[in-house]
Amino acid sequence: MTVIEIEGLRKSYGSKTPVEDVSLSVEKGEIFGIAGPNGAGKTTVVECASGLRDRDGGTLRVLGLDPRTDRRKLLQRIGAQLQEAALPDSIKVGEALAMYASLYDKPADWRAVMEEWGLSDKRRARFASLSGGWKQRLFIALALVGDPELVFLDELTTGLDPSARRTTWGLIRKLRERGVTVVMVTHFMDEAEALCDRMAIIGQGRVLALGTPRELTEQGRSDSLDEAYFALTEGAVA
Ligand SMILES: Nc1ncnc2c1ncn2[C@@H]1O[C@H](COP(=O)(O)OP(=O)(O)OP(=O)(O)O)[C@@H](O)[C@H]1O
User: Fold this and answer.
1) What is the CA(15)–ligand 1 centre distance, in A?
2) pTM above 0.90?
3) How high is the pLDDT of residue 235?
């Protein structure tokens, strides 16, 4: 079943059009990666698909809804990772989960989510006191309190130490095991290789390559996804 269908997506900011003609689809239950050079429009694509930003052209269906006209309905069914600045320093882990759960019509039991993601011992810890790894764990838990069918994660592991990254990978796999579809923006090809069922590399306003990490490695005529990425994005730096 197709969860996201993007056809000819276009988005401009003033005279700049980072996303000119992006088409891709995401299937239910997969971890779908989006990679590409800085400024290629990865976050813009994710924001348009999650109803957080309006598009200038193209068609979008997400969980059968149009993010433009069915925004409220869509926001009830998806989870999006927050940027760090979205939480006040002084908020406690338990308070943040309870607050986000209150935004949904049919939330998951936030205490169960807290327990499942290993956050119960941190319940009274203030956000500012958490290490990067615990913050990311909280962001994943917050993205899940609405009991979403689809989750968007944007550079979730950037800035994490190697062991926190590995732990986060485990958490993302756990989402797939639960049947949640995951769309993740990443700059790390080892991460894409370890997690993504399929991925798109975007640049120059469009999809430069799309497939499984193995298919992309072959398309780039390379021995590794890392090398293939360079071959496929050559000349596409925004
Ligand atoms: N609100 C905005 N107003 C003006 N320009 C913007 C806005 N948001 C993004 N842009 C510009 O649009 C382009 C695409 O941005 P976007 O954040 O989608 O790219 P990205 O691929 O996610 O980049 P990065 O890898 O650096 O996170 C960039 O050049 C960015 O500066």
Assistant:
1) 13
2) yes
3) 67
